[in-house]
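pls design
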């Protein structure tokens, strides 16, 4: 779609003017699914038994996960940890869900 907004070229206009071989490949189905989870609440289970509850903001090829506004649960203890990176080698399970309806970690 080619259009101008306030005299500026839009992303679609610019993208269509770039040769196909120079543009980024389309996301795979798995990457698109991961991208849809960005900024949603996530519960991450670590190999040492801790559970982190926060906003999913990033991951990488090594499966490292970054959560923002995070709470850490260890046994019956709960603490606010803020921005946290969980190394991929310590991931056991990641859940993306509507935590408003879950009272397991409150």
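designed seq:
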């Amino acid at each position: 779609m080619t259009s101008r907004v306030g005299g500026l070229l839009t992303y679609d206009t610019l993208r269509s003017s770039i040769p196909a071989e120079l543009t980024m490949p389309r996301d795979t189905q798995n990457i698109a699914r991961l991208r849809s989870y960005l900024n949603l609440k996530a519960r991450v289970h670590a190999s040492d038994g801790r559970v982190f509850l926060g906003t999913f903001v990033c991951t990488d090829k090594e499966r490292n996960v970054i959560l923002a506004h995070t709470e850490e649960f260890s046994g019956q203890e709960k603490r606010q940890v803020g921005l946290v990176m969980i190394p991929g080698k310590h991931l056991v399970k990641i859940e993306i869900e509507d935590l408003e309806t879950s009272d397991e970690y409150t």
